[in-house]
Each structure stands twice: as structure tokens, then as C-alpha cells.
Backbone:
């Protein structure tokens, strides 16, 4: 038997590495298991999907491609003449790789600084207090731990009609590795990942078609915000086809022929590259020994309570492998909560105030209920909206597209949700998160003094508009 730890975490993604650091900070002897290794096999790669092939690299490409579009099309509006502008895709990818390397290396430094033991290999819970770690050479070592945290993450879903073909039919990971801009790009799935990756390559010159099986666009977003977002993305050149169910694909030479059905019947399109972005599934197969008593549902998610305890005492699970949105920040907060509980502290997490962001341009961000969800729950609501077209800072920024919307309880005035489409929406949504965390009313935000001129003033005006008191917009509601 190898070393014994107070806590062993399986997985070094945003849930696992954060839990490990927090546990170590709280004085617990902590180890974190990660199977991902560098291409040359020389070192363990920390950070999970988020840092390596998800959140961070995609944002690097989104930022670079957006600046390219601004320089090519928008700078002249500001009086900046740039001449002919081109994008070096390979250089853009190299920058992305360097950012990823810096961040993953930074986690290794944080582990060392906090005294976290990094264990290379594949972790498996074989008993209530035992984890087996199998390294890249097949050698298995058993470690004891008073507590175990499963943070194994998730992997992209593959669908039978479009089997992956290296370099041609790829998932989200493969889409981050293109070395040149495809002329015709197909994207299956109009979710967050599909829209972000479609935006990157659309900006760089691809003819992008997004095939979405669902009838509604971004159904998790407030209806008014989703409708405006769809209009803005269409204006940018994204061809988003809803109610388009993919039935098959065929690779012919360097092309991919995709078959799908819509309201008009059977259709066919040809692409140079195809990205499959139909969601992610929990990575839990083989992580828990059979007969241990840790329950999984039919999709592979581990059953946990509100504080991420599994059915086996001392074993917890966080992040993408449990219920709730598959978001890095949700996983991190769960990891912190579990570490605090293991250390003997009282901790909980408010799942009603987890923000979501789509990093297109403009960004789409939301927290809480949509107007439609609130009404479906039988809640009498009142809403306030404010367009960025009426914002002085938005005009100065050349970013007048979008709006901010607040949904409040008509009886109590408590904020139930906030939805924004606009420049920096991902930053501004924190105001809604904080307000809801403290149980604020729309009036609380309306009475708050906002800096001028800022994009956030749209949130202030939306709060004022809930009761018809918006200053910089014609009010359609009777003032009280």
C-alpha cells in the first residue's frame, strides 16, 4: 500500500484542481490524479478540458478572430485606416497553444506551492477509502484516502450519423486545431460550443452552416434575447438552420457530404470540414469499481446530493460528471464547497445563481429564470429592458447591438433573472449574479449609482425600466 492521504481527487480539471488547492490550503494532505500526459509523454498535463481543449483555447481564437474582423471591417468607422489585413492562422494557433501551456504550467506551480501531490495515471475508486492509480506504463498503485472526490469531467458526444474522420469530421477538440480556414464549414449543433466555433471560422472567411435539430434557438435564454442573438449572428453570416435533423454523412475525397431532414424534406450539403458539437457526456466509465454502491443514472451521471455527496460515505463527485450545467465555474465552486465540507466547515452552493455565457460577438449572458420559465411556474412577473443602441458608451465603443433585460417578481420586486446580449455581457452578468445572491429587488439596482459612461448603465436602465422609470428611453409603462 502506498501513501495515505486525507483526500484524493480524481481529475485535474477546473473542479479537481481547485478542490485540491483548497483542500491543501485547509491543511489536508491532498493528492490529485490526472491521466492526461504531454505528447512526448514527459509530463502530466493539468487543467482538464477547460484549459487544454475548451474554455481557454476557444476564447483565444474568438478574441483573435474578432480583432481581425474589427481591423478588416470596423476600424475605418473609427478613422483608422489599416489597408489590406490578413490572418496568419498558424500563428494564431501557436499563440493559443502558448496560452494553454502557460496556464497548465501555472497549475503545476500552484500544486507545488500549496503542497498538493500530483499523481500521474488513471484513477479508479476501488473501495470507500481506496483509489487505484494506473500509470501510462500500466503499473497500478493503490492509495488510501479518508475522502475521495471524483472530478473526472466529460467528453464530446459522438453521433452515429457522423462518425469522426481525422481532419475532416471532427469534434470541438479537432476544431481548435485547424491550420487553415476551410472554405465551407458545417457545424452540427447550435449550442454554446457550436456557435462559438462557428463564429471563429466565419470571421476568418468560412461559409458556415449550422445544423440544429431543435426547433428553438438557444431555448435556455430568454426569448427576446435569443431572438435578437439569432438575428445578429445571421447578419454576421452564420447560416443557422433550425429543425434540421442530420441523418447521415459520407466522406468523398477531401469533402464531407451531410444529409439532413427539415420541413421541406430530405436535404444534402457538402462541406470541406464538419464539426460535431451536439453536447458532452460525463466521463465516468471505469472511474468507479462495480459493486461499490455509487449510483449512476442511465446517461452516466453520478447521483449526488446538494452538497455533492455520493451514496458512499466519504466519496464525493463534482463538475461535469454530476447533475447541473457543464460549466467550469460550476465545477470549481463545487470543488471548493466539497473541500470545505471535508475540512469540517459548513458550506453550500446556490445553484440558482450560476451564470452562463456564449462568447460570440456580441456576447450572450444570463442568470436565473427566463420570462417564459417564470410564467410557466405561475409567477406573475414584470420586466425591464434597455437597448445598447441608446447607450453613450456603446456608441463610443461602436458596439450598439443588443440589450439588457431583467425579470422580476411582480409581487415582491425580487430579481428572478437577468439576460444580456451585448459587448462584455459576460462581465456585466456578474451584477445579476451578485444581486440575486443577496436577494436584491429591481429597485435595489435602480437605486444604485452606476459609473458613467459605461456599458453597465444598460443594466441600471433595465432595472429602472422594470417600473417604467428608465431615463434614457421612452417609457411605455405608467409611472408610479
Residues:
Amino acid at each position: 500500500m502506498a501513501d495515505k492521504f486525507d483526500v484524493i481527487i480524481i481529475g485535474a480539471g477546473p473542479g479537481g484542481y481547485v478542490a485540491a488547492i483548497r483542500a491543501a490550503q485547509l491543511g489536508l494532505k491532498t493528492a490529485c490524479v490526472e491521466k492526461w500526459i504531454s505528447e512526448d509523454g514527459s509530463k502530466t498535463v493539468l487543467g482538464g478540458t477547460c484549459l487544454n481543449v475548451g474554455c481557454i483555447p476557444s476564447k483565444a481564437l474568438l478574441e483573435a478572430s474578432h480583432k481581425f474582423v474589427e481591423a478588416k471591417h470596423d476600424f475605418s468607422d473609427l478613422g483608422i485606416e489599416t489597408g489590406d489585413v490578413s490572418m496568419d492562422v498558424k500563428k494564431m494557433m501557436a499563440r493559443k497553444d502558448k496560452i494553454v501551456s502557460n496556464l497548465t504550467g501555472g497549475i503545476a506551480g500552484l500544486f507545488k506551492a500549496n503542497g498538493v501531490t500530483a499523481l500521474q495515471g488513471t484513477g479508479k475508486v476501488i473501495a470507500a477509502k481506496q483509489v487505484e492509480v494506473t500509470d501510462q506504463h500500466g503499473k497500478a498503485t493503490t492509495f488510501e484516502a479518508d475522502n475521495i472526490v471524483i472530478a473526472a469531467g466529460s467528453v464530446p458526444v459522438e453521433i452515429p450519423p457522423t462518425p469522426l474522420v481525422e481532419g475532416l469530421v471532427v469534434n470541438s477538440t479537432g476544431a481548435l486545431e485547424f491550420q487553415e480556414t476551410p472554405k465551407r464549414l458545417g457545424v452540427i449543433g447550435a449550442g454554446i460550443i457550436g456557435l462559438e466555433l462557428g463564429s471563429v471560422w466565419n470571421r476568418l472567411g468560412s461559409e458556415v452552416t449550422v445544423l440544429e435539430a431543435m426547433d428553438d434557438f438557444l431555448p435556455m435564454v430568454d426569448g427576446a434575447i435569443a431572438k435578437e442573438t439569432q438575428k445578429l449572428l445571421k447578419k454576421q453570416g452564420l447560416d443557422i438552420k433550425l429543425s434540421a435533423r442530420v441523418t447521415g454523412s459520407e466522406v468523398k475525397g477531401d469533402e464531407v457530404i451531410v444529409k439532413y431532414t427539415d420541413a421541406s424534406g430530405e436535404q444534402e450539403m457538402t462541406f470541406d470540414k464538419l464539426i460535431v458539437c451536439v453536447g458532452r457526456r460525463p466521463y465516468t466509465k471505469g472511474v468507479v469499481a462495480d459493486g461499490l454502491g455509487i449510483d449512476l443514472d442511465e446517461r452516466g451521471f453520478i447521483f449526488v446530493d446538494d452538497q455533492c455527496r455520493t451514496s458512499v460515505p466519504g466519496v464525493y463527485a463534482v463538475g461535469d460528471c454530476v447533475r447541473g450545467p457543464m460549466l467550469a465555474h460550476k465545477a470549481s465552486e463545487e470543488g471548493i464547497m466539497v473541500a470545505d465540507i471535508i475540512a469540517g466547515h459548513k458550506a453550500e452552493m446556490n445553484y440558482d445563481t450560476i451564470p452562463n455565457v456564449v462568447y460570440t460577438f456580441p456576447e450572450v449572458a444570463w442568470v436565473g429564470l427566463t420570462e417564459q420559465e417564470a410564467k410557466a411556474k405561475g409567477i406573475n412577473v414584470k420586466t425591464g429592458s434597455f437597448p445598447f443602441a441608446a447607450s453613450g458608451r456603446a456608441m463610443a465603443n461602436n458596439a450598439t447591438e443588443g440589450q439588457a433585460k431583467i425579470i422580476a417578481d411582480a409581487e415582491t420586486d425580487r430579481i428572478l433573472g437577468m439576460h444580456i446580449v451585448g459587448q462584455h455581457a459576460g462581465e456585466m452578468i456578474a451584477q445579476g449574479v451578485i444581486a440575486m445572491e443577496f436577494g436584491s429587488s429591481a429597485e435595489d439596482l435602480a437605486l444604485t449609482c452606476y459609473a458613467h459612461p459605461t456599458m453597465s448603465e444598460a443594466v441600471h436602465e433595465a432595472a429602472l425600466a422594470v417600473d417604467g422609470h428608465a431615463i434614457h428611453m421612452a417609457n411605455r409603462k405608467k409611472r408610479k
